[in-house]
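Title: Prediction job returns without error message
Component: structure pipeline
Severity: low
Priority: P3
Assignee: unassigned

Description:
Job completed but the reporter wants confirmation the result is attached to the right record. Sequence as submitted:
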Amino acid sequence: MSHVFHRSNKASYPVAVKGDGIYIIDKEGKKYLDGSSGAAVSCLGHSNESVRQAIKKQVDQLAYAHTSFFTTEPMEQLADWLVQRAPDGLERVYFVSGGSEAVEAAIKLARQYFLEIGKPEKKYVIARNQSYHGNTLGALSAGGNQWRRKQFEPMLINMSHIAACYEYRGKEEGETSYDYGQRVAGELEDKINQLGADNVVAFIAEPVVGATIGCVAATEGYFKKIREICTKYDVLLILDEVMCGMGRTGKLFACEYDGITGDIITIAKGLGGGYQPIGATLVSGKIYNAITNGTGFFQHGHTYIGHATACAASLAVQQVIEKDNLLDNVKKMGKLLESKLRSCFEGHPNVGDIRGRGLFYGVEFVKDQRTKEALDPSLKLNVKLKANAMQEGLMCYGMGGTIDGKLGDHVMFAPPFIIDEKGINEIIEKFDRAVNKTFDQLGLLSSARLAG
């Protein structure tokens, strides 16, 4: 009998015992292709020797030193590496243990910045509906994932939300993609004016929305408008790249596609590739200098920030990605993944949308492709599809509540950056079998699909 408090008390989990490149192997010897890198984490797969050696070397030398007493060489080196490659203006790195902590730090830092410069009335944070920023109470308050928020709602901090930039669901008839993006970006200005510009601390958004709506990138020009609005009203822009950043889209920072940067950018997941728990909050020189010239102390902290072994592992991960030109492979294999998904599934009557960027793609399932009507959530399509994919030996990331926290089903793919054409083909073949099996079980496999 297990004494572990698992994510689901009703699930039965295979026991993972070994990693082999893009595969995880369980106790029974079954191999699973990691088509989602867990939760878009394992960018180098599960057995990179350079990273393993970096971890062993660091543990032999110094595993951990508390940051109230020391800095360490791995922390300093990783910070240098990130700042040298970050968008202009980001000059400091605050290391944490994961994405939720990175967002929590970003929100607190934004508030403290305005205190330091004599604007204590600044207190409100604006975010977007159908977003996800982490599971601490502060990060959960910023997120717009209704399913995750619901039971904790009475405990959450009061934050405001505007519409997501979700073209498949939000664009009106006759409206261009650009005009749609400008319209929903304009909601930020409306919300700032409603709350009072002197009261707003920050706006937080994912450049490519991850788990909540499944790999949705903003329309062209959307984030440039957002950046202009934030600058106009002296509102800090926090870009949450915990899931979509660190090369997942084919560029090291996802916001590079949009031609903008944030005042604060949060990263995690692909930063350490799962070899050690780590996250980070990248901060502009403006914010850092305000605190340095003021109290000189960020009133925040966790025991394991700047963990020496985690920093050593992460630096090794990033060095491998750069040395092996893996971002080029992300772009190349991302195009192949998109092409294969479209050729195999666009004709399926229950596939509504295929979207993404780099090796970060989502498939949204619907009851009717023409009307975009969602499937009955009681069918639990995403849950059954994930389970059937696991039976086929494929890990994919399924979620429900795509549209509003209740309706909508999608599946995400975010395979390791080291994947090749053979691996992409295996993902498609196994997912195709899982889709057919799932719709057959639910009695929804249409004659059109069977004929195809």
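Comment from assignee: result matches the submitted record. The chain has 15 helices and 17 strands.
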